[in-house]
Design a protein that fits this description.
single chain; Rossmann fold; 16% strand
Length: 288
């Protein structure tokens, strides 16, 4: 597929974690984010979110990139690996601690209430008998509101849904919320289109952007591909269409899932060209 000419300031991205092969749910997110960028005559980038070594599968990143290439995706820049960005994360945490927007916490998961909402135990200093483990960001009484392109108006009171949340884990690794915010800003991402399983992370990310004085991108959360048993279709399932069907059929299935109506009988490049020209984000349903 030929590279598109970029005439807008739109910058989108696809950021898989290297925890297994590319599965259909990830393919759907890749297709949606790619077509949204191409339709806007913007740029589309690939980032490998490899900040959690215990969960990573050796060779997974290479396999994902190989599958994306086989399916016809083309990034408009060099692939960014989060594992090369540790200094940026460390610097952000230090700044937030210095400004007292974040603090050291000595609590373990066993210390959390059943609701999972952090009660602020170490908010004013480490509790008796606790030693510093993770770093949490203060949410105070932050109420986050945003309009999701697909899910509509969202309003969340972080104090009641999550409480102060972790931005640096007890093992010293950056939390997902921190890394994604730092790198979206670093790459100049203007629009994030991803799976609805990350919708409940968005308010925390927007709050973190506010704390770091970073501009928030626009968000769109597409429905999840589900198995008949109601579980999210993921890397652990053997019924993965990406691994079991030819590229043109995988793309055809992803387009149909996204509410598009592609004609049959096209070659891969023809199908991509049709998809870019006829892309309608408004056709995506809120839920699968």
């Amino acid at each position: 597929m030929d590279q598109a000419r970029h005439t807008s300031t739109y910058v989108g991205r696809f950021a898989p974690s290297p925890t297994g092969d590319l599965h259909f749910g990830s393919l759907v997110a890749a297709v949606a984010s790619f077509l949204q960028a191409r339709h806007a005559k913007g740029r589309w980038l690939i980032r490998i979110d490899d900040i959690d070594p215990p969960r990573e599968v050796p060779g997974s990143a290479i396999a994902i990139l190989r599958d994306l290439d086989r399916l016809g995706f083309k990034s408009d820049g060099q692939v960014l690996y989060q594992s090369t960005r540790t200094e940026a994360y460390r610097s952000a945490v230090e700044n937030l601690l210095r400004q007292e927007q974040a603090y050291w916490c000595g609590c373990t998961r066993k210390d959390l209430p059943a609701s999972g909402v952090y009660p602020g135990t170490c908010q004013n200093g480490l509790a008796t008998g606790k030693s510093p483990r993770a770093v949490r960001l203060r949410v105070d009484s932050a109420i986050i509101e945003f309009t999701d392109l697909i899910q509509g108006n969202i309003r969340e009171n972080l104090e009641t849904t999550t409480g102060d949340f972790v931005i640096q884990r007890a093992d010293g690794l950056p939390a997902y919320q921190l890394a994604v915010v730092i790198d979206d800003a670093f790459q100049g991402i203007t629009d994030v289109m991803r799976g609805a399983d990350l919708l409940n992370s968005t308010a925390r990310q927007i709050h973190l952007q506010h704390c770091l004085e970073l501009k928030s991108p626009s968000y769109a959360h597409i429905p999840l591909a589900m198995h008949g048993d109601g579980k999210k279709l993921g890397k652990r399932y053997g019924s993965d269409p990406v691994a079991s069907v030819p590229p043109v059929e995988a793309l055809f299935l992803a387009l149909k899932f996204l509410g598009q109506l592609p004609p049959q009988g096209m070659e891969l490049e023809q199908l991509w060209a049709w998809a870019i020209e006829h892309w309608q984000a408004a056709s995506i349903l809120r839920s699968a």
